[in-house]
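Repro case for the chain-ordering regression, as requested:
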Amino acid sequence: MKSVEDWYRHDRMPHIFCTGCGNGTVINCTLEAVMQMGWDIDNTIFISGIGCSSRSPGYITTDSLHTTHGRALAFATGVKLAKPEFDVVVFTGDGDLSAIGGNHFIHACRRNINMTVICMNNMIYGMTGGQGSPCTPAGAISTTTPYGATEPVFDLARLAEASGANYSARWTAYHVKELTKAIKVGMEIPGFSFIEAMTQCPTSYGRRNKLRTTTSMLEYMRDNAVLLNKAKRMEAEGRELSPGRFTVGEFVKRFRPALGVVKDEE
Amino acid sequence: MKLVIDQNLCKGCNLCTMVCPYNIFQEGSELNKKGVVVPELDRPERCTNCRLASLYQRRLCGVCQLICPDQAIKWIEEEPYESMKVVIEY
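-- result from build under test --
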């Protein structure tokens, strides 16, 4: 019987992520979902771009590609074209996916390529020193927004839904069981599945925003996450979601025809 | 089964102290040899997975293992009890 331990590269551990970084949690959840799917180590590829989150495939024993900034999805499309029978998982961050690879992202959603994309949204550019990203919430302090971010944020799960992805969900690093389940559903569905995992970044984000400890960042996520059903109910009652809160849940699940699905010969 | 924290992997973020429903993980007080304050285990035999995993043949709960960013929490099989010879002295 295989266990999750077989999927880690133990010679590379402990990993370089800061104390309390949520990326390790998302790797755990992904590998747990992969175990439940029963995928083969030799037929799975993890692909990533540049950033903290994109170092994750280096700790997994499968084949992996560590590619250029924002272009992980372009490389993943190439892998899927060359080896359609392989299971492709893309790890990416919010800066990687939404800012620099934004165009690749919407077109990968539109083409509905059969892969699973896991976006670790830590609301900041963590690796380069805490610059503001398109997902930095309004009012948050970062090195490029010293008086508080003023721009509206990108709602990545809704962007994926509007661009045509087959599955789109958002959970946080606190909701580990739900995140695992969402990743598993995303892997089962043929076509493009997008899972946004909100992760904590105590070093670059929390330190400047009065969330210095890891547990306080996780409590922030627990307290500010609103289930999608509740948000819809509140909207029907005419109540607004208070600023700073965000919705979690399954945004879309549909079965549009997908590119790159291997059909059995009949 | 026995719950253990790997002293080489743990970075002391104390996330496990927040999520455990039994409060088995308590914030530690002493530095280990890597200079990390690793959480201490308070009566780990209360853990659901330790008690019932072999009965159900699957992992139960396991939130601490899933949320641990450093993959430091795991369960190891305990060695079965060795039969001891007791000598009673009169």
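Ordering looks correct now. The helical segments of chain B are 15-19, 48-56, 63-67.
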